[in-house]
Amino acid sequence: MATTALSQAYPLGTTINERGHLEIGGCDLIEVAEQHGTPAYVYAEDDIRARARAYVEAFSSRTGDFEVIYASKALPITAAYRLMAEEGLSVDVASGGELHLALKAAVPPERLFMHGNNKSRAELELAFDAGLGYLVLDSLHEIELAEELLAGRDRRQAVLIRVTPGIKPSTHSYIQTGQLDSKFGFGLEDGLAAEAVRRAQSAAHLDLVGIHAHIGSQIFELEPYAKTIQLLADFVESSGVECRLLNVGGGLGIAYTAEDEPPSIESYVDALLRHAPPGVTVLCEPGRSLVGNAGVTVYTVGTVKRVEDVRTWVAVDGGMSDNLRPMLYGARYEAEIVGRFGGDEICTVVGMHCESGDVLVRDVPLDDPRPGDLLVIPATGAYGHSMANNYNALRRPPVVFCRDGHARLVVRRETFDDLTLRDV
Predict the structure, then answer these.
(1) What are φ and ψ of residue 158, in 5° steps?
(2) Domain map (residue ranges) of the chain
């Protein structure tokens, strides 16, 4: 059997045991698949906890004025919300559904930050009734709507203004969010941010406590963060905002393949604090960098189609219904045959959906793939579950947390009956 060293795309502590099987959180992945079926999202729980603690420790060793906020869109399940709260993190939510999940997980509402470029009246009412800690304002209409709803409740709400600083980091255009031409926030260059500040300050029921900016996701460069913080500091000074909170968003990249070299959490936090103005509490919103590398997806190989001098197609029992990222913006992954790591047969791993574009990994070396093999793709812990869908009426996979050799089911697999639950 060919062997290979595990890349940094895999969860912390992952090993290949004496049987040649992959172990995640002390659990044999083949045994996990036998118990819970495939496809399945499998997480090393201690990996998530270690990364959450790394953020807290990186900040606390440098300052007492900080807050780490879990960007829950990366993995919006109650088990993740509870874990983050246990580790002392606050939580950001971007919809009524994410808010509902966080509250179901008993996250204190005062530790919740609500985002979204198009929050509905119903979502704001739900948030205000729950006692939301912070509302991140994203449009002039939202300022008016929030003031109207709060006046009816005779209460004040802490708010931040989301600005677009005009920064375009080197990442896919679909996950750039800080440029002026963006659906998110108020532009600095066109004066909308200053107008939003004026309106928020004049509102009787809004307490403007800070400024927020998010420039994008899967970012490896630290310089764009330094530029963003400087622009925000200049805006705070020029606009006269009494800024207690400076939320610089998230976006730190992770290693999807062995070639990726993202900055460390320590370096990222150091860059944020080194350039932050004095007298403010710095907030950041990691999501992908907390859960992305902590999770893998395990599949069963169904067919192997070898086209001589062209390509070997390896089809698995999932695909674009459980990992949409390769189809959305060409995300790259590694893959291995579980139990036979290494190999030199160049293959393309595809899903079972009725789309030619249902390609999970292109041109990846595998060890003689065969029908019935288990195949693992690492670094799928962020956005796999949250983007999962029922294309071709596939059932969404389960989520399994592994820790100290115990595999704990935290989200069950959908059943066929689940597919008809909403039919009338």
Answers:
(1) -70, 130
(2) 15-37+294-420, 46-289
Angle 96-104/121-130 helices, nearest 10 degrees?
Answer: 20
Average pLDDT over residues 366-393: 98
CA atoms within 13 A on the CB side of 109: 14
Active-site annotation, residues: 354
Say how many Å lie between the first and final Cα of the chain, rounded.
54
pLDDT greater than 60 at residue 130: yes
Both structure tokens of 42: 């499998």
What is the pLDDT, as a whole number, of residue 278? 87
Architecture of domain 15-37+294-420: Beta Barrel (2.40)
* 190 pLDDT above the threshold of 90: no
Tell me: pLDDT of 174 over 70: no
Q: How far apart are CA 240 and CA 232, in angstroms?
A: 12
Tokens of 212: 């927020």
Instruction: Please say whether the dihedral angle defined by the alpha carbons of residues 331, 49, 405 and 321, taken in this order, is positive or negative.
Output: negative
Q: From the CA atom positions of the chain, what is the Rg in Å?
A: 22
For the record, the structure tokens of 20 come out as 């040649």
Amino acid at 148: E
For domain 46-289, give the fold.
Answer: TIM Barrel (3.20.20)
pTM of the model: 0.94
Residue in the block written with tokens 């935290």: 410
pLDDT tens-digit map of 51-98: 999 999 999 999 999 999 999 999 999 999 999 999 999 999 999 999
